Amino acid sequence: MRLRTRVFLLGALACTHAPAHHDATLQPVDSLSAVDSLLLPPDSAFKVEQVETPPWVLSCPRPDYPPAARASGMQGRVLVQMIVDTLGRPEPKTISILESPGLDLSLSARAAARGCLFGPARIHGRAVRVIIRMPYYFAVRR
Predict the structure, then answer these.
(1) Which residues, in sequence order, are bridge partners of residue 76?
(2) 56-59 and 117-119 as β-strands: parallel, antiparallel, unpaired?
(3) Which among 10, 53, 105, 132 counts the fewest CB atoms within 10 Å?
(4) What is the mean pLDDT of residues 83-93?
(5) How far apart, in whole angstroms, are the C-alpha atoms of residue 74 and residue 67?
(6) Terminus-to-terminus CA distance in the chain, angstroms?
(7) Model pLDDT, residue 139
(8) How far is the C-alpha of 35 from the C-alpha of 95, rounded, in Å?
(9) Residue-wise burial string across 42-58, b where 16 or more C-beta atoms lie within 10 A, e elsewhere
(10) At a CB cut-off of 8 Å and minimum separation 6, what does 55 contact?
C-alpha cells in the first residue's frame, strides 16, 4: 500500500451576487467541521478545508421566492449541502437541505443550487470532488 502525503489549506467559498429583487440573496458558505481524515477513498469527496483551491461560483441562479411563502411572511435561511464534481457542477443526488424555515423555501433553494456552476476545487492542480454548504437567505422586504 502506497501512502501519499498531501498538504491541505483552509479555503472558503463565497457567493457574490448583487440581489436582483433584494428578496433572496446568496451569502458566503459556512465552513465544514474540522478534517477527520486526510486521505479519503477515491469514491468520496473532500471537505473544503482539505483542498488547496476551493470551488468558486461562476454562475448561480437566484432562487425564486415562492408566492405562498412570501404571502405568509415565511423568511429565513435555507442551508444547502452538495457535492461539486470535478467539472464544477453540483451532483443532483447529493443536494440536501440541512436547515430551512419551510418546505417551499427548501424546494426553491434546491432548484437554484442545481443550476449553479463552479470553478472546480483543486489539490496539486488536479480537480477533485468537494462537499460544500451554501446558504440562501429569504427575506420579505416592506
Answers:
(1) 138
(2) antiparallel
(3) 10
(4) 96
(5) 10
(6) 62
(7) 94
(8) 21
(9) eeebbbbbbbbbbbbbe
(10) 13, 48, 84, 88, 118, 119, 120, 121, 130, 132
Q: Strand, coil or helix: what is 67?
A: helix
The DSSP 8-state label assigned to residue 122 in this structure reads: E
Question: How many residues does this entry show for the chain?
Answer: 142
- Half-sphere exposure (Cβ direction) of 142: Cα atoms closer than 13 Å: 2
96-121 pLDDT, tens digit per residue, is: 999 999 999 999 999 999 999 999 99
Task: Give CA–CA dist 7/98, Å, rounded.
Answer: 29
The H-or-E segment that residue 109 falls in is helix 103-114
Q: Which domains does the chain have, with CATH numbers?
A: 24-138 (3.30.2420.10)
| Residue type present at position 59 | S
In this model, does residue 4 exceed pLDDT 60? no
* C-alpha cell at position 46: 473532500
User: Of 20, 136, 13, 5, whose CA–CA distance to 84 is shortest?
Assistant: 13
Res 32: pLDDT: 35
Q: How many helices (H) and strands (E) does the chain have?
A: 2, 9
**pLDDT > 50? residue 28:** no
Q: How far is it, in rounded angstroms, from Cα 56 to Cα 52?
A: 12
